[in-house]
Automatic annotation (TrEMBL):
The lineage of its organism: Bacteria, Pseudomonadati, Bacteroidota, Sphingobacteriia, Sphingobacteriales. This is Signal transduction histidine kinase internal region domain-containing protein. It comes from the Bacteria. Signal peptide: none annotated. Residues 406-479 form the Signal transduction histidine kinase internal region domain. Pfam families: His_kinase. Keywords: Coiled coil, Membrane, Transmembrane, Transmembrane helix. The chain crosses the membrane at residues 364-384. GO terms for cellular component: membrane. One of its GO terms (molecular function) is phosphorelay sensor kinase activity. Residues 386-413, 452-479 form a coiled coil.
Length: 601
C-alpha cells in the first residue's frame, strides 16, 4: 500500500515537472521569435553588456548591411561613442601629439584626443547603469562611473563656445545611428538596443577646425572627461610608387612579392616626397597605400574636368590598397592623376606620371643611310665653318693691328704734350735759379725716358704706373706747392695687375694746373686704389675750387687723348672695359673715378 502511494506521487511529480519544462520552453521559443523579428530594448542581461555595436539608421530603421564608421571608447568610469569618424589613422600620429593628454594620476579628468578626416560627427554618452525607482540597472560591464543624469556638458569649436553647459538628462537619442549592446560569443546573443543614451548632437568641422567637449558634475563642477578632436587636412599622398616590368618573368615575381609579402622594388620616392613619377613604356605602375582600415576609402580620377571618381576597395585594407596604372598609357606624355580620401572630398592630391617614349628601333639599312647623310652634312658644315673662321681671323687680325696703330699714334701724341709742359716748367725755373734748373732738367729727362719706354707698351704693371705718376707729381712740386697721398688696398698686388700706361697723368695735370687757385691754403691730391668684386677702381680727388672738366674751363689736350685711348681699349678688350667718371662738388673739389670692369677676374 505504501509502495503504491509512493509510485503515484512520483508519477504526479514527473508530470508536473514535464508541464513546467514545456511551459518554459514555449516562453523561451516565443522570446527567440520576438528577437528574430527586430531589436528589443527591454531584454537587458542582468550582468550588463560586454561590448557595443553601432548601426546606421535609414528612415528610422536599423540597417544591418550598412557599414557604420564610429569610435567606441570603453573606459572604467566613462563611455562614449563618436559616430561619423573612426579612430585616429596612423598617418595622423604626429598630429595627435599636439593634444594635451592631461595628468595620468587616478581619478584625474581624462583627456582623449582624436585626429579625424571626416566633416560631420556626432557624440553619444553611454552610461554603465541607470537609476530607476531607486534601483540601479546595469547596462554595461560594471556599476562603475557616475550617474549620467547628474552630469552636464559643454562644446567649444575653435575655442568658441557653441553649446553652453547642458544637463545630459536633457539630451535625446541619436536618430541617425543605433547603439546596441552585445555579449560574447555574438552568435549566441542577439544585439539589444541600449536602454538609454545621451546624444550631444551633430558637429560640422571644416579642415583644421578643433572641437572640445567637456563633461563635469552638475553640483560639484568636478571635471570628469574632456574630448578633443581635430579635423586635419587629409592628403592622399601616403603611398609608394612601384613599377613592374612585363617581360622576362619579372612581372610574376615582383607582383607576387608586393601582393603577398608587401615588398618590391620602388622606382621613385613615396607620395609624400614627390608629385612627379616616371614610368617606362609598357611597364605597370602601382600606387600602394598601406596601413589603412576599412574606414579609409581612397578615390581616384584620371580626369579633372569633370572628376570621374572611382573607389579603391580591398578585402583587407591593412595589407594594402592598390591602384594599378594602365600599361598602355600614351608614351612621351604626362598623365595627371587625382587622389583623395572619400572622408575628405575637398582635399584633392594631384600627381603626374610621365611615361617615357618607347625604345628607338630603326632597321640597319635606314641607320646606314642616315649615318652617311649626317656624315656628309657634317663634313660640309665643317668645311664652311673652317672657311668662315679663316675670314673672321683675318678680319680680327687686321682689327687688332689697326687698334694697336691707333694706340701707338695716341701715345706718340702724348710724348710731345709732356715735353711741351716740361719745357715750360724748365723755362720758368731757369729764370729763377740756374742750378735748380739743371737738376730739374735731369729729372725731366729721366722722366721723359720712362714715358717714351712705357708709351711703346700696351700695358704696364700697376706698380710701374704708380711710380711714374709719383715721379710726375714730384716734378710738379718743384713748380707749385701741393701735397699728395697714394693708397693701395691691402688685398691687391700691384706688381701682378696690368694697367694702361700714362692713364692717370692728364687728370693729375688738370688738378694741378686748373683746380688749385691762389687762394687755396692747402692744395691736396689723393689717389686711392681698391677693388669691388672683380672690378678695379682708381679714385683721384683734389680739393680745388675750380671744376676743370666744365665748359667754362678749357680742357687740356692730354685729357682729350685719354678719352680717345679709353675708347680704343674698350673696342679691343672683350668682356672688359674702362669707365671714366668726373664729378665736382663745391667746397670739396673734383673726384675722377676710373672703373676697370672685370679687370681682376
Amino acid at each position: 500500500m505504501l509502495l503504491k502511494k509512493s509510485l503515484k506521487l512520483r508519477s504526479i511529480l514527473i508530470n508536473s515537472c514535464f508541464k513546467i519544462k514545456m511551459k518554459y520552453l514555449i516562453i523561451l521559443a516565443l522570446m527567440l521569435c520576438a528577437n528574430r523579428q527586430g531589436y528589443s530594448q527591454e531584454q537587458i542581461p542582468e550582468t550588463g553588456f560586454s561590448d557595443v555595436i553601432v548601426k546606421k539608421k535609414i528612415n528610422g530603421k536599423i540597417c544591418d548591411s550598412c557599414r557604420a564608421v564610429s569610435v567606441v571608447t570603453k573606459e572604467y568610469d566613462f563611455n562614449y561613442v563618436i559616430t561619423g569618424a573612426g579612430h585616429t589613422p596612423h598617418r595622423f600620429g604626429r598630429l595627435k601629439g599636439s593634444f594635451s593628454y592631461g595628468p595620468s594620476r587616478p581619478r584625474a579628468p581624462l583627456v582623449s584626443a582624436y585626429v579625424i578626416s571626416q566633416r560631420n560627427i556626432g557624440i553619444s554618452f553611454l552610461p554603465n547603469f541607470l537609476q530607476e525607482n531607486g534601483n540601479k540597472i546595469q547596462l554595461y560591464r560594471n556599476f562603475g562611473g557616475p550617474d549620467y543624469t547628474k552630469l552636464e556638458f559643454r562644446a567649444e569649436q575653435n575655442g568658441k563656445v557653441i553649446k553652453p553647459w547642458m544637463p545630459l538628462s536633457a539630451l535625446g537619442e541619436n536618430s541617425n545611428y543605433a547603439i546596441l549592446g552585445i555579449n560574447f560569443p555574438e552568435d549566441k546573443f542577439i544585439p539589444v538596443l541600449w536602454k538609454r543614451t545621451f546624444y550631444a548632437g551633430d558637429f560640422n568641422l571644416d579642415i583644421m577646425d578643433s572641437l572640445k567637449v567637456t563633461v563635469r558634475e552638475i553640483t560639484t563642477k568636478k571635471l570628469l572627461q574632456r574630448i578633443s578632436i581635430l579635423r586635419a587636412a587629409d592628403t592622399a599622398n601616403n603611398f609608394i610608387y612601384y613599377q613592374l616590368p612585363l617581360g622576362d618573368g619579372g612581372l610574376n615575381a615582383n607582383l607576387q612579392d608586393i601582393l603577398n609579402l608587401g615588398r618590391g622594388e620602388p622606382v621613385a620616392f613615396g607620395g609624400d616626397t614627390s608629385t612627379i613619377f616616371k614610368k617606362d613604356y609598357g611597364s605597370i605602375g602601382i600606387l600602394l597605400y598601406k596601413g589603412l582600415t576599412f574606414q579609409d576609402e581612397v578615390e581616384y580620377s584620371f580626369g579633372k574636368n569633370p572628376y570621374k571618381w572611382k573607389s579603391l576597395t580591398a578585402l583587407d585594407p591593412g595589407h594594402g590598397v592598390f591602384l594599378v596604372l594602365p600599361s598602355d598609357m600614351t608614351a612621351g606624355k604626362d598623365h595627371d592623376i587625382y587622389l583623395r580620401y572619400k572622408s575628405q572630398p575637398e582635399t584633392v592630391h594631384s600627381i603626374t606620371v610621365s611615361v617615357k617614349p618607347p625604345p628607338f628601333e630603326i632597321p640597319w639599312a635606314q641607320i646606314a643611310v642616315i649615318s652617311i647623310l649626317i656624315l656628309t652634312l657634317g663634313l660640309t658644315w665643317f668645311y664652311l665653318r673652317n672657311k668662315r673662321n679663316k675670314r673672321k681671323l683675318a678680319a680680327l687680325k687686321q682689327k687688332n693691328e689697326d687698334t694697336e696703330t691707333r694706340l701707338s699714334l695716341l701715345s706718340g701724341q702724348l710724348n710731345p704734350h709732356f715735353l711741351f709742359n716740361s719745357l715750360n716748367a724748365i723755362q720758368g725755373t731757369i729764370n729763377n735759379n740756374q742750378e735748380k734748373a739743371n737738376a730739374y732738367i735731369a729729372s725731366v729727362a729721366s722722366f721723359m725716358r720712362d714715358v717714351m719706354d712705357n708709351s711703346k707698351k700696351e700695358f704696364v704693371s700697376l706698380q710701374e704706373e704708380l711710380k711714374q705718376e709719383e715721379d710726375y707729381l714730384k716734378l710738379e712740386q718743384e713748380r707749385s706747392a701741393f701735397s699728395y697721398t697714394i693708397s693701395v688696398s691691402t688685398d691687391l698686388r700691384p706688381s701682378l695687375i696690368d694697367f694702361p700706361p700714362l692713364l692717370l697723368q692728364p687728370v693729375l695735370e688738370n688738378s694741378i694746373r686748373h683746380a688749385f687757385g691762389q687762394n687755396l691754403s692747402d692744395p691736396t691730391i689723393t689717389i686711392q686704389i681698391f677693388r669691388d668684386t672683380n672690378n678695379l677702381n682708381v679714385k683721384l680727388a683734389d680739393n680745388g675750387i675750380t671744376f676743370w672738366n666744365s665748359d667754362g674751363v678749357q680742357q687740356g689736350h692730354g685729357l682729350s687723348l685719354t678719352r680717345k685711348r679709353i675708347a680704343v681699349y674698350n673696342e679691343k678688350l672683350e668682356g672688359m672695359s674702362i669707365q671714366m667718371n668726373v664729378n665736382y662738388s663745391e667746397g670739396s673739389g673734383t673726384i675722377t673715378t676710373f672703373t676697370l670692369q672685370n679687370w681682376l677676374s
